[in-house]
Amino acid sequence: MTLADYQAAKAADSRQRITKAATRLFLANSYDRVSVAEVTKQADVSLRTLYKHFDSKAALYASVVVAKAEELTDDLSASIDDEAPALAAVAAFALRVMQIGTRDDVLALWRTIIMEGRRFPQILDAYLQAREEFTALVRDFLQRLEARGDLRLDDRDAAVTLFIGMLDYRSSLPALIGEPGLDAAGQTRLAHQVAEAVLARFGAAGGRSAG
Hints:
This protein is an all-alpha fold. The chain is built from nine helices and no strands. It has helices at residues 3-28, 36-43, 47-53, 57-79, 86-101, 104-116, 121-147, 156-176, 184-202.
């Protein structure tokens, strides 16, 4: 290993430890109650090392948002069933979106973004990036169903909006503002309603919609 390789590996390790420590602290406390000094202590790095990677606490929080979004996107991608009939596939994907989107750690992250996004544009930008990645994942999922002949997406944006909008209105937004959430049975019912709505509007004649 060359000196340059060693330094790069060491820097990557430091950044990873900083991000992991920051994630634990930010999810357990409000944004204002987490200090950069506490992050360095938890990550076992110096303040100088932290500021080599992140120029502010807001930038650090933004990195947590991006990392968490990537983790959730990977989870959702792994949940896609390319073999299931369209109705079952859409319902299963919608259910997984709800299960992830209403987790306590995810809700805590989004609430902080709402509270701090105006003060710190980096945090808002990170959220918008995460939202774009989620939207792209939903679009890709629906296009995969179209490619196998189950959907006819004459308006892809409308299909994505229908899928996300129903989940936002009935599940994500109520949970975000602290209203009683759907129980497991309620989430399952909503997932099937989303699937039925998508298939009713965009189902292709002769597609594998049963299930």
